[in-house]
Structures are given as structure tokens and as C-alpha cells.
TrEMBL record, chain A:
This is Phosphotriesterase. The keyword Metal-binding applies. Keywords: Hydrolase, Metal-binding. It comes from the Bacteria. InterPro entries: Metal_Hydrolase, Phosphotriesterase. It comes from Actinomycetospora termitidis. The keyword tRNA processing does not apply. Pfam families: PTE (PF02126). Belongs to the metallo-dependent hydrolases superfamily. Phosphotriesterase family.
UniProtKB/TrEMBL annotation, chain B:
The keyword Metal-binding applies. The modification N6-carboxylysine is found at K137. It comes from the Bacteria. Keywords: Hydrolase, Metal-binding. PANTHER family: PHOSPHOTRIESTERASE-RELATED, PHOSPHOTRIESTERASE-RELATED PROTEIN. The lineage of its organism: Bacteria, Bacillati, Actinomycetota, Actinomycetes, Pseudonocardiales. It comes from Actinomycetospora termitidis. This is Phosphotriesterase. InterPro entries: Metal_Hydrolase, Phosphotriesterase. Transmembrane segments: none annotated. The keyword Transmembrane does not apply. Belongs to the metallo-dependent hydrolases superfamily. Phosphotriesterase family.
Length: 324, 317
């Protein structure tokens, strides 16, 4: 059976429904959990996130993919309780990045010299989160991760960013989960590193491609290479990203060019932020904002369904990996 | 009135007894908690830790200063339980072992924010535990030179030390000129600073002991027991006799009042294998006999292990 790894276990891929594919539910800047002025009230966080997930479900949503990775506030018992309570499937991720967000364990280990971790060690760390289950640090492992995520330093790839990209790619190849990458200033170069590791391009999603600093040609090059693009700031109202009108035009252009199967849409919202600015955009911004805009611009219903249901389903479906 | 913050509340300095001034219940680099290689079930963690603390207590040990920094697996609830059950006073720290152990929330922070955080942990408490930090930890990142982040942490620590009266311990005393300059600029007398790891293998020869002592700093011979004679010594090990002779030479030159000793051992390491056979009890089983064999009298040993740490740890008003 074709299944997707959710926090509550495997779910048949055709039951996901409409998917918010690149979101952050609880996002904690590493270290903020120790800060004197940061309060982590789990009951309050649950209530906030449950409302957002319920609003998403009421707007027709079925599944939320949490791309915070393994070291940015991921709280598996909380995500499990949210999924059980709201009926929304939650897919959680392993992985981390960019380099600046890593702990010293990976960057200055207790060896002489303190050599940063190479790709194979990241692959083993991330891979265990798929094969043995996601870690509740020093306590236990829970359900297998549904995807592996990493990110590259915005101003340019560091050596450790490259190790993370390769480690994430090897994890995807070995376990059959997809890999999602937030690129730096060289999205195509970042993608090529992932593909060099032998992961199929269709298993790779490149996020953040609705940034203003990303050229239209770059977006086209990514989909022509066979990877998916995630336009993941739907509803954003800032100087850094396209407006929804511009985003809709980009989607229409990609569809017209024959790439409807390579487009993913998301809000990139943060449900609850700790140590970071809040982000109040609703998870349903794709379904309630962008999709109506696409329809009114002439996008047909099968293509809408393809973008919000079929493409994420195909990406998230776990493929038999080399070691699966 | 003399006071020292322990994890179970403030105590008079007279109650500290013999102090191990630079130790760890369990240390792991930030992020090591994600790697199940190192995970131990709680039974195992207590089984590794409690007998060492009980032995410490039976040897006459009074106080264990844990200098595990904020993001290194510092676990104050665990320390409270261990202290209550073994009778050993445990002092916890605020601060960071080095800039490279400060996670992004703190690495991005200003000096003012870091100082507020340290002061909060010293005067209000650490997280929700109610326990107040008794010392501030700072240190030099890997690489041997103070980074810009290391310097922000040192400056914030100096401000918190001036404001609250608790002392500072450093991880490494190499490249100390920027540290001494920062402490001077912030008005912190150097007898409130223990310049640590002045005795380890790679760093002892590049640590300017006399320069620091002349400025009033305290010197930590606080890696006693990490010896090249161990079956599997860590890279910071040093020949046993070389360290002891070095220490005795400083005593002979009259620096007794500025010297502190400890073992920097892990009771139950969190993110590394640890060093088999090395515990805080080296102080009793090896160091004190070695000092006596070298002709050091008991009054000097008491000064090193009781009086100096009591003076150092007492909150200065």
C-alpha cells in the first residue's frame, strides 16, 4: 500500500486530502527554550495550534507538513495530540540547517581538531529518524519521519551546509522519504549537490522559490531538472516575497509550460513562534486566498486538485528506498 | 553574611566544606541529545552518578560545583534530586562553556540581553526550578582565540558578576588579554575570576600563569586526573608528574591564596564517552596523597579545598 509517514503512523496516501506542504507548527529558535523571557506554555500552544488546524480543516485542508526538522522546536507528543484532536494529518520532518542553526555537537565536536560533521554522519543521524523513529531527545523514538529537510545559508553555501545537503539526500535515497531544501543564493547549485547523491529529482522539493531574489529562470530550471518547486509564502505581505497576484501568475506560467506536476503551494506560516517573530498567516491561505485567485484567472479544477492534493501526495508517498 | 547559591537554596559559606570547584554531573555538546548513541535510561544515569557523589560525601566532600553551561545539558531538577538524596551541596552555573556552545538564541543576543539572562538565573532562578545559579561560566571557543561571541559573553558575565556578586569561572585561560581587559572595563576585580584549565596538556604551556596571578586572578588546576597514563587518555591529558610538579612550583612561589583545584570529571557524560576511571573522587584518592607525599601540609590542603573556594564562591556584596 502506498503510504505517508505521519506522526500517528502510516496513512494511505490517497487519504491526505489538500496538503499544506511547507509549514511550521511550533517553531523554537534553538536555545530560546532556555531563555529567561521565553515562556513555553504547552497548553496555550496546543490551543493556538488546534484552532489553526481546525480552521484549516474547515477550509478543506487535510494534512499539514511540518518542516521545522529535528532541532527547531519539534515536539512530537504535542503534534500527535494535535493530530488526534483535530483530525488533520500531521507529517513531521527530520533534518536541520543551515549551519548557523546547528548545535556545537556537529560543528566543534570534542575531538582534536574539532572537525565539523561530514555528510555520512548526518545521513546516519537523519536516516535513523526514518528507520527507527523520530527522537524525543534522550527519552525515546516515536513515529518515522515523513521527510527530510535542510537549508542553506542565505548568503551562500558553507562546507557544513554542503554536508547537510548530501546527508539529507542520502537519507532520502536510502529510506524513500522525500527531501525538501531551502536554498541559499544558488538554488540550482544546491539542487545539483542533492542530485549528485543519486536521489531521483522527483523526490526533491526546492522551497522558498517565491522570493523576490530568485529569478524566474531559476524556477524554470529547477522544474526542468525534474524537481518540484515550493512557492511557500502564499499570503505573505512583505518586501521579500512575491505578492499573491505575482505568485498566481508564476503558477499559471509554470502550468502553461507543462510543469503542473512540479508545483507545490504553501504558506510557510509559523503556528506558534518562540524566540522568533510571530507569523499570523492562516494555514488555509492557499485554499482560501491563492486558489480562488487561480480559479478566477482561469485555472481548471483538475489542475487545482493536482497542485493541492496530487502533487503533495506523490511527493510524500514513501518509495521503496535502497535500504527499505 | 556569607551566602552561596546552591540548587537547594542559599547556604552559609561555612557549610561548604571541601569543594570540588569545577565539575560536571553530565556534559554534552549542544545537539548531542539528538544522537541516540549517547542516550541512557534514567536508572543508568542515577546508577552512574549517585555512588560517585556518595563516595565524595564519605570522603568528606561537601560541595560539588557543576559548571555545565546553559546549552550543554545542564539539568537543574536532576541536580536538586541528587543533592537532596546524597547530602552533597551542588552549585549550578549560569553562562556558557564557550561561544561555540551557545545556541542561536544566545549567539545572536546582545551583551545587555545576555547580562539580563545571567542576572535572572542568579537572582530569580533557572527556568522553572526555583534554583539560583551560584557561579557564571564563560570560556574560549575551540580554536584558541576569543571570538566576538566569546567576548560578548565575557562582558555580560562581568556585568552580572558586578551586579550580583557571584564569581566567574573560565573554560581555558589562553588568550587572556581580551578577557582581562573586559573585566577591567566592567569594574570586576580579578579575584572574582577563576581562570580555569590552566593545567591541561595542550594549554598549560600557553597559559600565562604569572601574568594572571600578578593581576590578582585565581588560577584553576582543575583538570587533575586527566593523565596520559590513563588507558585511553583524552587529548587534553597531561603526564601526572608534570602537572603535579607545575602545581607545586606555583605553591612554592607563594601563590597558595590564588590557587584552586578540581578534577573536571563527568559523573555520567551526556554526549561523549567520558574518560573511564576518572571521577571527582580523584581529589581524595590521588591528589591529596600526592600532595602529602610531596611534603604539603594539611593546613595548605585545607586552604586549597576549603578556604579558597569558600572565599571565591561567597556572594560579594
Amino acid at each position: 500500500m502506498r503510504t505517508v509517514h505521519t506522526v500517528l503512523g502510516p496513512v494511505p496516501a490517497d487519504q491526505l486530502g489538500a496538503v499544506a506542504v511547507h509549514e511550521s507548527l511550533l517553531s523554537v529558535l534553538p536555545g530560546a527554550e532556555h531563555a529567561f523571557d521565553v515562556t513555553i506554555d504547552r497548553a496555550e500552544i496546543f490551543e493556538t495550534l488546534a484552532k489553526k488546524l481546525t480552521d484549516f480543516r474547515n477550509a478543506g485542508g487535510g494534512t499539514v507538513v511540518d518542516v521545522t526538522g529535528m532541532f527547531h522546536g519539534r515536539d512530537l507528543p504535542l503534534l500527535e495530540a494535535l493530530s488526534r484532536s483535530t483530525g488533520v494529518h500531521v507529517v513531521a520532518s527530520t533534518g536541520m540547517g543551515p549551519e548557523e542553526l546547528l548545535g556545537g555537537y556537529f560543528l566543534t565536536p570534542q575531538t582534536n581538531p574539532p572537525t565539523p560533521w561530514p555528510a555520512d554522519r548526518f545521513a546516519a543521524l537523519f536516516g535513523a529518524e526514518v528507520t527507527a523513529g523520530m527522537a524525543v531527545p534522550r527519552v525515546e523514538r516515536r513515529a518515522p519521519a515523513g521527510l527530510v529537510v535542510t537549508a542553506v545559508t542565505r548568503i551562500g553555501r558553507t562546507a557544513t551546509d554542503e554536508s547537510l545537503l548530501r546527508g539529507a539526500a542520502r537519507t532520502a535515497r536510502a529510506t524513500g522519504v522525500p527531501v525538501a531544501v531551502c536554498p541559499g543564493d544558488d538554488a540550482l547549485g544546491d539542487l545539483e549537490i542533492v542530485l549528485e547523491e543519486g536521489v531521483a529529482a522527483e523526490r526533491v522539493a526546492v522551497a522558498g522559490l517565491d522570493r523576490r531574489d530568485v529569478a524566474r529562470e531559476t524556477v524554470l530550471a529547477v522544474v526542468r531538472r525534474g524537481a518540484s518547486v515550493v512557492l511557500d509564502h502564499v499570503g505573505a505581505d512583505d518586501d521579500e516575497h512575491l505578492t499573491d497576484r505575482e505568485r498566481a501568475d508564476l503558477v499559471l506560467a509554470l502550468v502553461a509550460d507543462g510543469h503542473a506536476g512540479r508545483v507545490l503551494l504553501s504558506t510557510g506560516a509559523i503556528g506558534v513562534a518562540k524566540g522568533l517573530p510571530d507569523d499570523e498567516r492562516p494555514l488555509a491561505a492557499v485554499l482560501e486566498g491563492l486558489v480562488p485567485l487561480l480559479r478566477s484567472s482561469g485555472l481548471d479544477e483538475p489542475t487545482v486538485h493536482r497542485l493541492v492534493v496530487e502533487n503533495p501526495r506523490d511527493l510524500l508517498t514513501v518509495r521503496p528506498g535502497e535500504e527499505a | 553574611m556569607s551566602r552561596v547559591n546552591t540548587v537547594l537554596g542559599a547556604i552559609p559559606a561555612a557549610e561548604l566544606g571541601v569543594v570540588a570547584v569545577h565539575e560536571h554531573i553530565g556534559y554534552g555538546m549542544p545537539g548531542s541529545e539528538l544522537d541516540s548513541t549517547w542516550w541512557k535510561i534514567p536508572e543508568e544515569r542515577y546508577a552512574e552518578t549517585v555512588p560517585k557523589l556518595r563516595e565524595f560525601h564519605e570522603h568528606g566532600g561537601g560541595t560539588f560545583v557543576d559548571v555545565t553551561g546553559i546549552c550543554n545539558g545542564r539539568d537543574v531538577d536532576h541536580y536538586r534530586s541528587l543533592s537532596a538524596k546524597t547530602g552533597v551541596h551542588i552549585v549550578a552555573c549560569t553562562g556558557f562553556v564557550g561561544g561555540d556552545t551557545a545556541l542561536p538564541h544566545f549567539a545572536r543576543a546582545t551583551v545587555e540581553y545576555l547580562a539580563r539572562h545571567f542576572v535572572h538565573e542568579i537572582t530569580v532562578g533557572i527556568g522553572g526550578t526555583g534554583a539560583r545559579a551560584g557561579v557564571i561560566k564563560v570560556g574560549v571557543s575551540r580554536g584558541g582565540r576569543m571570538t566576538a561571541l566569546d567576548r560578548r559573553i565575557y562582558r555580560a558575565a562581568a556585568r552580572a558578576a558586578v551586579q550580583t556578586g557571584v564569581p566567574i569561572l573560565t573554560h581555558l585561560a589562553i588568550d587572556p588579554e581580551p578577557a582581562v581587559a573586559i573585566f577591567g572595563e566592567e569594574g570586576l576585580p580579578l579575584d572574582r575570576v577563576l581562570f580555569g584549565h590552566a593545567d591541561d596538556g595542550p594549554n598549560s604551556s600557553i597559559t600565562p600563569h604569572e601574568w594572571l596571578l600578578a593581576r590578582g586572578g585565581r588560577i584553576g588546576f582543575d583538570t587533575f586526573g586527566y593523565e596520559t597514563e590513563l588507558p585511553d587518555p583524552p587529548f587534553w591529558a597531561r603526564p601526572r608528574k608534570e602537572r603535579l610538579d607545575h602545581f607545586l612550583s606555583l605553591l612554592e612561589r607563594g601563590h597558595l591564596g590564588q590557587l584552586l583545584v578540581s578534577a573536571d570529571a563527568n559523573c555520567s557524560p551526556l554526549g561523549w564517552p567520558g574518560v573511564k576511571g576518572h571521577t571527582v573522587n580523584y581529589l581524595f584518592t590521588d591528589l591529596i596523597p600526592d600532595l602529602r607525599d610531596a611534603g604539603v601540609d594539611d593546613a595548605v590542603i585545607t586552604t586549597l579545598l576549603v578556604d579558597n573556594p569558600a572565599d571565591f564562591l561567597s556572594i560579594r556584596s
